[in-house]
Each structure stands twice: as C-alpha cells, then as structure tokens.
Amino acid sequence: MPSKVGIRVEDAYRWEKRVPLVPEDAADLARRHGLRIAIQSSRKRVFTDEAYRAAGIEVVDDLASSAVIIGIKEIPPGVLEPGKTYVFFSHVIKGQSHNMPMLRRFLDLGATLIDYEKVTDEKGRRLIFFGNYAGLAGMIETLWALGQRLAWEGIKSPFQSLKRPYEYPDLAHAKAGIRAVGEEITREGLPKEIVPLVVGIAGYGNVSRGAQEILSLLPVRDVSPHGLLGLRKEKVDGHVVHKTLFKEVDTVEPVNPARPFHLEEFFSHPERYRGTFARFLPHLDIVLNCIYWDARYPRLVTLEALESAFRQGERFPRVIGDLSCDVGGAIECTVKATEPDVPVYVYEPLTGQATDGVAGKGPVIMAIDILPTELPREASVYFSGVLKPYLPAIASADYTGDFAACALPPEIKRAVIAYRGELTPDYAYLAKHLALEGEGKGEGR
To answer: How confident is the model at residue 222 (pLDDT cuts 50, 70, 90)?
Structure first.
C-alpha cells in the first residue's frame, strides 16, 4: 500500500499562499491510485480547508501519520521527523549556508530529501517548477516599480496605473491592466524624458518566457544587444517599449581575446570568461535578471560597475528586477531578498546602503524571492498538474533498502539529495558545505 501523503502548511514566509497539490488533483489521485492524502490546516492558503474537505481530503492539525510529506518552501529544522520522506524546494544545492542546518537535521534524523529543483529528464531539463509564474509576476512587479520610481522623479507615466500582481483578482485581470498601459503608450506615447524606454532581459528559460509574455502585452520593438549601443543616438519611436534579450554570448567574453566564445566551454570552464554586461548598463532603463547563477560564473551587475557609473555621472538602470533573487549573486546589489509588503529598495552605489522604497540616489531593486505566490491560484494549479504524475511513485517507493535499489523513477531519483540520513552520490559535494557550517565559517545569505 502506498505511504500516506501529507501536504504541510507553509510557514517559512507569511505571504506564502501556494500549495503543491490542489483539491481536484488530490481527489483524483485518491480515486485513481488509492493514495491516502491529508492536508495540514491553514488559514492563509489560496485553497481553503473547506475546498479540500469538499474534495474528500482529510484536513488535520499535524502530519504525524504521514510518511511522505510534500510542501513548497524550506521546512524549519525543528519540525522535521525521523525517517520520513520530504519533497520541497530545499535551496541547498549551491551549499547555501542559511539552509545547511536544515540539511544537517535531515542527516541526523535519517530522513530523505527530494528537491523539486533537481527533478530533471535525461538531458537535465527541469520538470517541476514555478518558473514561468515567477516571470509573469516579476515583470508586473518591475513595471509597477518603474511607475513608482518615475513618479518619485516627477515624471508622470502610464505605468503609475499598474497594481501589484496580488492586488488583481487573477492573472487575467493583471494582463488586462498591462494591456491598458500598452494602449495608452500606443495612443499617447511615453513621456519624452524616458524615450527610448529600454527593457533588458538576461536569460531565455522559463522565468524569461513568463516575463516576456507580460511585456508582449505592451507595444514592443526588439533591439539586438549590438543595436542597443547606438539606440539613443537615433530618432526613436516614443510609442513603443524597446526590448533587448541577452544571452551568454552578449554578457561575457573569453579572458584570452584570441579565443572565440563557446557556450559549452563557458558552462564547463566559466573561469575562462569575464563579464561584459557593464557596457550595456547606461543604455537600459530596466534590467530583468532571469538567469541561473552560482559563484563560478561572472556576475551580471557588479557593485564596481554601479559605483563607477555613479561617480562618472553615467546613466544606470532605474529599476533592476532580480527575478532569480540570488542574494549577492548575478546582481551583486541584491543585498537582501524582499517580500510582497515591501517589494523594493534603493541601492546607493557609494555607501552600499539599501533603503526600502523607491526614493534615493541609486537603482531600485525588486528582489521578491516568492514571486509565484503573488499569483497563487494559477501558480498552484499549474504546479500541481506537473507534480501529480510523480506522486504515486513517490508514495509507493520502498525507502527501507539501499539507495541504489530504491525503485523511484529516474527523474525523481536524480532529485534525492539525502536518503535515509546520507547524502546521495550526486550530492556528496554538500558535505564540505556542511563542514563549513559546522565550523561557523559558512558564507551568510
């Protein structure tokens, strides 16, 4: 018989309203596969306790009787239970120091950790994600921030009419709001002070596609990175928003100028490359970061580049939407993550000070790290649909034997970070991060 599956309450963030399995899909799994499913009671979840009860799903105060527990965000170490299997976004695969105590607790308890982020096909493509909804919500947030920043500068713009994503009844209404802005731009044009208005998007994956879906609701004209450098010298149309999409070849170059750019080499030997994105900063009003980054790779926006631009009186982006939200990562001035109630801050390049809001001498940084929860219903329905096919196998697997013998589908097995209290072979490298955490030398988030 499959193990009982428990859906845990989300308690890592007070704004978190998503759920990994919606009532309709939970009921279908119970009916078609005999899964026993319980959900922990929550008063903030976008799907209410009553909706689950109506679908025939047990609503409980705790998940003591569940052997497999699914959630979304990180789980406080103190609530983990011995020997159980947990499935969620753990944010440990880069050795993030703030989550090493949680990973250590998994090992101490002999528990199993499956991370959605590492559920991939044989080519390494992710199969379970919210990425497109991060892009959808993140683009709306960034355009809203632009409107607020322009208003602070004394420039009235169509973007001032935008709301935050969660303030719209649903995604359809949010898109209608963006379209209305686009119609005003087409009809009346943009304020002359911000023509040409250029949005630069770094990355071309799921997050980027979501962002571009929203931006496409405005009158958009595509400009290549090369064409962007001369755009402000041309007579440009003030009735459009210019969009530039950046790929790796546009943002880095070989350290050895005699060598050509090779994408495969960049991924396998990033130390052979250096960042070149700073040359584009004076030409961009918005930077949208949608790339995966870790410490091996050059940064997209460095503190040095911002300080240099500031000291020399050069233009720099009014708003940076860091949709990837790696603190101190690709966008080095992302010095903290933000939440929906205080979504933006101004980074002051000379002092390094971050001041909440849009007022100040520096770029506005939007770095909400739970963006999909601003579109909680649609995001949950989508995520539930992609997770649902894998749950019968996760619930039915025998976790008592060796990891090699565990009959999980290969897509899921690739995502097992810890198994019965031991790091699996693909994630053995995390032992050094655990050791650093134990010595108190981990790098702070």
So the answer is: very high
Same domain, 135 and 116: no
The mean pLDDT value for 56-61 works out to 97
Tell me if 325 is assigned to some domain. yes
Q: Are residues 209 and 102 in the same domain?
A: no
- Within this chain, do residues 285 and 338 fall inside the same structural domain, yes or no? yes
Give residue 136's region: left, alpha or beta (phi > 0; psi -120 to 50). alpha
* 372 half-sphere exposure, CB direction, 13 A CA radius: 22
Task: Show the domain range for 256.
Answer: 131-374
Q: What are the tens digits of pLDDT across the range 119-129?
A: 999 999 999 99
Here the tokens at position 255 are: 């350290």
Model confidence at 2, pLDDT cuts 50, 70, 90, reads confident
In a domain? residue 24: yes
* DSSP class of 238: T
Distant-in-sequence contacts of 55-64, Cβ < 8 A, 24+ apart: 55/23, 55/24, 55/26, 55/27, 56/27, 56/30, 57/23, 57/26, 57/27, 57/30, 60/6, 63/6, 63/8, 63/38
Task: Tell how many helices (H) and how many strands (E) occur in the chain.
Answer: 14, 18
In a domain, 355, yes or no: yes
Question: Are 294 and 387 in a shared domain?
Answer: no
Mean pLDDT (the chain) is 94
Q: Which of the four pLDDT bands, split at 50, 70 and 90, describes residue 131?
A: confident
Same domain, 212 and 339: yes
* Strand 58-60 versus strand 37-40 pairing type: parallel
CA angle in degrees (0–180, nearest 5) for 183-208-346: 80
Q: What is the mean pLDDT of residues 391-409?
A: 95
CATH number of the domain within which 47 lies: 3.40.50.720
The string of DSSP codes covering 95-157 is --GGGHHHHHHHHHHT-EEEEGGG-B-TT--B-S--HHHHHHHHHHHHHHHHHHHHHHTT---
346 and 280 part of one domain: yes
List strands edge to edge, sheet with 286-289.
220-222, 241-246, 198-202, 286-289, 319-322, 364-366, 344-347, 354-356
Place of tokens 């695969």: 93
